[in-house]
Fold this sequence. Notes:
By secondary structure, the chain is of the alpha+beta class. The protein is 26% helix and 29% strand.
Amino acid sequence: MSLTGRQRAQAARLLREAEHHAEPIEPLSAALPGLGLADAYAVQRDNIARRLADGARVIGHKVGLTSVAMRQLLGVDEPDFGHLLDDMIHQDGATVPAARYCAPRVEPEICFRLARPLRGPGVTAEDVLAATEAVAPALEIVDSRIRDWRITLADTVADNASSAGLVCGSWTPMEYAPDLAAVTVDLYVNGDHVASGSGKEVLGHPAAAVAWPANTLAAFSTGLDPGHVVLPGAMTTAPFVGAGQKAEARFGALGSVSVYFV
Length: 262
């Protein structure tokens, strides 16, 4: 790590305040030029620890930047991961206040629910499929606490991989699930078709994207736990959304999921 403990604590505090007040801050990477990935993940863990101390519970992880479309959109060149907490979950068709976010976007994803633990290194896509209990259509609400989404990889990692919410549809047990790489999705905002994609956009197969954090978390002596959910990454680009808009993702045989912003 190249930042001091005081600098990491300062970065964590700035992100907490930005999220609490829905007021974005300037890029941390500009204010703290030494900010590297190890520092960024330390900042992320600090803020997650504080939320747990306030009563939240980790229910899984999200993987970000697994599709070419998203890496190109945000100008980064490798995946990252963040934490999903129980206070980030919304029911399918939920109404969510847009004002709680700085600049929200939505991403259609296939959500995994694990029946068995996954601990790296060496976890494969086949291991992920064998450990998965069910999958569901999902929309991740992503939000950058960094002004105008002017992020480097370190900025988004520190900011919990820009994760802000999860909307899940109905669960399909794995024995009835289609080939996840072949699943297609159409994303609509207020009824207008805005993007299409497929499971193969996500590191070739969504299960490969779930294997990535299982292996990466091994460096932190942890992994993915039974009952946890995992978002493997966006199947399309991520449009901005705001008050008065409905986002809906239609995944064919896997079902649909939607959320309203007010």
